[in-house]
Design goal:
Blueprint lengths: L1 H32 L1 H6 L3 E3 L5 E3 L3 E8 L6 E9 L4 E6 L6 E3 L12 E8 L6 E8 L9 E3 L3 E2 L1
Parallel strand pairs: 2-10
Antiparallel strand pairs: 1-3, 2-3, 3-7, 4-5, 4-8, 6-7, 8-9
Length: 151
């Protein structure tokens, strides 16, 4: 009877270890995949000097990125207020967004900034930027601007 109890205890311990590993490993992998956002969250910024409301009905937003161009596909800009609107600014998808002063559309390279022109119906109360990682995963807010001056 002692041999049977020892074998049962060993089997219970192995089954418990299997259940714990089956839960912990996927949980940790999911949490670590969000770590990519932590590395770039403060490296996408709104330049307030060149961000302004350009009457009538457009907003200029200048975005600066640090040395992260190889890990992001672009970013999303939220113009918030009475009627909020999001603009995804990607190399191949930038509907409703054009370059300031025209020219061909481009994303900032490492340690550069670009100014974008976006259509709005009213002056936004705030502007927020969210990085978009390669593969399409969107990160949390990287920067925001609440003092939008007139151009």
């Amino acid at each position: 009877s002692q041999i049977v109890s020892t074998v049962l205890l060993i089997l219970i311990a192995i089954a418990a270890a299997g259940l714990i590993i089956g839960f912990v490993i996927p949980f940790v992998k999911n949490k670590l995949s969000g770590g990519d956002c932590l590395e770039i969250i403060n490296k996408v910024k709104i330049s307030p000097r060149y961000t302004c409301y350009d009457d009538p009905n457009s907003v200029l937003v200048q975005i600066h990125i640090d040395d992260i161009r190889d890990v992001i596909d672009g970013f999303s800009v939220e113009l918030g207020g009475p009627s909020s609107k999001n603009y995804n600014i990607l190399e191949d998808d930038h509907t409703g967004v054009s370059m300031y002063e025209g020219g061909s559309f481009e994303l900032p390279n490492n340690t550069e900034e670009r100014t974008y022109n976006m259509s709005v119906t009213v002056k936004p109360e705030y502007i927020k930027v969210y990085p978009i990682l390669k593969g399409g995963k969107s990160c949390g807010e990287a920067d925001s601007e609440t003092d939008i001056k007139d151009c």
